[in-house]
Specification:
By secondary structure, the protein is mostly beta strands. It has strands at 3-7, 10-13, 18-25, 34-39, 46-51, 58-60, 68-73, 78-83, 92-102, 105-110, 114-119. 0% of the residues lie in helices and 56% in strands. The radius of gyration is 14 Å and the shape is globular.
C-alpha cells in the first residue's frame, strides 16, 4: 500500500523558515519523480515544486523560486521542502504527491497534508 506522510508544518512569522518532510512507503521511491503541492483556503491546489527520481532536476512555481528548495534522500525514502523567507501568502496545506504507474494506468497518491501558517 502506497503511503505518503508529511510532517514539519507549523506556525511561523513572516521571514522565517520551515522544513517539510514526506516519508514514502509501499512503492519504489527511487524510481519516481515527486512533487509538493499546496492548497490555500478557497483556492485550487497548486504545484509548488517537482524533483526527478534521481534528484538531479528540480522545478519550482514562480511564486516560490529562490525561496524554496526541494530535495530527496532515496536511501531514506524521504522528500523534503525547505522553505525560506516565508510570506503570509505561503499559508496553505502542503501535500506530498507521487504519480505512480501500474498496469491499469497512472495514479495520483497524496499524503494527508501538513498545515503551514505564516503570520505577518
Amino acid at each position: 500500500e502506497v503511503q505518503l506522510v508529511e510532517s514539519g508544518g507549523g506556525l511561523v512569522q513572516a521571514g522565517g523558515y520551515l522544513r517539510l518532510s514526506c516519508a514514502a512507503s509501499g512503492f519504489t521511491f527511487s524510481s519516481y519523480d515527486m512533487n509538493w503541492y499546496r492548497q490555500a483556503p478557497e483556492k485550487q491546489r497548486e504545484l509548488v515544486a517537482h524533483i526527478t527520481s534521481g534528484g538531479d532536476t528540480t522545478n519550482y512555481a514562480d511564486s516560490v523560486k529562490g525561496r524554496f528548495t526541494i530535495s530527496r534522500d532515496n536511501a531514506k525514502n524521504t522528500m523534503y521542502l525547505l522553505m525560506n523567507s516565508l510570506k503570509p501568502e505561503d499559508t496553505a496545506v502542503y501535500y506530498c504527491n507521487a504519480k505512480i504507474s501500474s498496469w491499469s494506468g497512472t495514479w495520483d497518491y497524496w499524503g494527508q497534508g501538513t498545515q503551514v501558517t505564516v503570520s505577518s
